[in-house]
Design a protein that fits this description.
Layout: E1 5-8, H1 23-34, E2 38-41, H2 47-57, E3 63-65, E4 70-72, E5 79-82, H3 87-97, E6 103-107, E7 111-114, H4 123-128, E8 138-141, H5 145-151, E9 158-162, H6 166-178, E10 182-185, E11 191-196, H7 201-211, E12 219-223, H8 229-234, E13 237-240, H9 246-249, E14 254-255, H10 263-279
Parallel strand pairs: 1-2, 1-12, 7-8, 12-13, 13-14
Antiparallel strand pairs: 3-4, 4-5, 6-7, 6-9, 9-11, 10-11
Helix pairs in contact: 1-10
């Protein structure tokens, strides 16, 4: 079978725990790209952040960002798909999560709106220290969060809640989930993310596959956590990282090494590069 599209999650998958891409991962992505396979970054992060890593990889395929709520061509302003939460939904989410002692952020494709000042070690703050001015992530520390929601109402694609207190984060997640009107998933024990109903990485992978007229059996999706499950189930070859969530692993067609041991490179080597050599 010749795979034609690979969708790769970032945190916990493509990136190691230092938020870096290993030399092995870079080389493997380059090899499969040269073989004609399309490689897409598929992440919960916002588009601007994902674009940085897509540029680092040297891929040209559209980027799936915000858990599938925003898909856009990497090098031109062509939006393939966008699902906005809207003002009323954002206000409803805000009214619920602010009852709990958790940090809440509203994401646009380009930036983040926060109720509180950002920690100096925040991933996006650190990225902005080295990014060129035109590529920096928009950081909005809101004096009046409802005013910012109103201002960006047609651009907010995701809300993310983060808290180290597992009981608080679980209680807030459960209350939002019970509404039955949002997609609510986690990318780690300390967070959950909220999108419009029907938005998922799996749906986004299908949108991208359809965009290129590629059958799902010819798609590889690689991830590690709950928010990757839908795309792992969609793919003809669902790959889960060795460091991945144990529940998610039960849906894998293939389990690779960990993110700190270049598991992405090892999966691409085995499933595409070696397979291609054996067929020649």
């Amino acid at each position: 079978m010749g795979y034609k599209l690979v969708c790769i999650d970032m945190d916990g998958t493509l990136l190691d725990d230092k938020k870096e891409v290993s030399k092995e991962n870079l080389e493997a992505v380059k090899k499969v790209t040269e073989m004609g396979v399309k490689v897409a970054v598929c992440t919960g992060r916002l588009f601007t952040s994902a674009k940085f890593y897509a540029n680092l990889l040297g891929v040209k395929t559209p980027i799936i960002s915000s858990n599938g709520a925003y898909i856009r061509e990497k090098d031109k302003n062509k939006v393939i798909y966008q699902s906005n939460l809207g003002e009323e939904n954002c206000k409803e989410i805000l009214s619920i999560v602010t009852k709990f002692k958790i940090n809440v952020f509203f994401n646009t494709p380009r930036g983040v709106i926060s109720l509180k000042p950002f920690d100096k070690n925040n991933t996006y703050i650190k990225m902005n220290e080295t990014l060129p001015e035109g590529d920096r992530i928009e950081i909005i520390e809101a004096a009046n969060i409802e005013e910012e929601i109103k201002k960006y109402k047609d651009d907010i694609v995701k809300c993310i809640c983060i808290e180290q207190d597992f009981e608080e984060i679980s209680a807030a997640k459960n209350e939002i989930s019970k509404l039955g009107k949002y997609e609510v998933v986690s990318s780690g024990r300390d967070n959950f993310e909220i999108m419009c109903k029907g938005v998922s990485k799996g749906r986004a992978a299908k949108v991208l596959a359809d965009y290129y007229n590629i059958d799902s059996k010819d798609v590889i999706c690689i991830g590690d956590n709950e928010n990757d499950l839908s795309m792992i189930q969609f793919a003809g070859m669902g790959v889960v990282m060795g460091n991945g969530d144990e529940h998610v692993k039960t849906f894998a067609n293939y389990i690779t090494d960990t993110n700190n041991n270049s598991g992405v490179a090892k999966a691409l080597q085995e499933l595409i590069i070696n397979a291609n050599h054996s067929n020649n």
